[in-house]
Write a structure and sequence with these properties.
246 residues; six-stranded mixed beta sheet
Length: 246
């Protein structure tokens, strides 16, 4: 029987990109490509923005990285492993080893802040002593240790996104995917979340952010991959938000 896919273990053994797309295309309808012939390599420790107009294929890339969908053509590799070849029983553990933050937070409304973060560790069957150590550590990292007993409806949008970040990080993922993490936040909270993501990246986590926020992309001067009509039209090491004009 094939072993579970453990990203941390795999990355310790190889020098491959942590994420690699090789001639990847995806059609949701016959003849209509959401993305076409995508070639991307993202290395461990990078901070990468993926930008582009609505319908450019950004969300499709995230779904492919999570193996929610499979490419119509080409291959997606994570930690040197073609994830399209993962067995069904391996996919759950694979997804749990990646931190994911969404625009709409996706917190459990019937659980307090502590329990929302602890849930991510309970899913991977972490021992109770580890949970008691890790959860306060993550809440301190995002500045919410004093909100541990609060419920999501008692928090601001920025605070809810911080909880989502703590939950995404509690299992020490090699990769953090953030899909429009500031989409529902005001400018002040948006910058606080991006500062947290930058700090997390400096600790060694590979961070991939899908965003429409031009000001953030331009000011942070990170690597920027721009999509237009499902194709990569630019990939700049220290880039700016480039509008993909027709």
């Amino acid at each position: 029987m094939a072993a579970d896919f453990d990203i941390n273990r795999e990355m310790s053994k190889i020098e491959a990109p942590v994420i690699s797309f090789e001639h990847v295309s995806k059609e949701y309808q016959k003849g209509i490509a959401a993305i076409e012939d995508i070639n991307i390599r993202i290395y461990k420790g990078e901070f990468v923005f993926i930008v582009g107009n609505s319908g450019s294929g950004k969300s499709t890339l995230i779904r492919l990285m999570l193996k929610e969908i499979l490419p119509s053509k080409g291959k997606v590799f994570v930690a040197g492993r073609e994830i399209g070849r993962l067995r069904k029983f391996q996919v759950g553990k694979y997804r749990r080893s990646i931190g994911v933050v969404f625009q709409d937070f996706r917190l459990l409304k019937d659980r307090n802040v502590y329990d929302n973060v602890a849930f991510a560790q309970q899913v991977v069957e972490a021992p109770a002593r580890l949970i008691k150590r890790q959860v306060p550590k993550m809440l301190s990292l995002v500045g919410l240790i004093d909100k541990a007993k609060s419920f999501p409806n008692e928090l601001s949008g920025g605070q809810q996104q911080r909880v989502a970040l703590a939950r995404a990080l509690v299992n020490n993922p090699v990769i953090l995917l953030a899909d429009e993490p500031t989409g529902n936040l005001d400018p002040k909270n948006s910058w606080e979340i991006m500062s947290l993501l930058e700090d997390i990246n400096k600790r060694g986590t590979t961070v991939v952010v899908v965003t429409h926020n031009q000001e953030i992309v331009d000011r942070m001067q990170k690597r920027v991959i721009t999509l237009k009509n499902g194709r990569v039209i630019s990939d700049e090491e220290k880039g700016r938000y480039r509008y993909a004009k027709n």
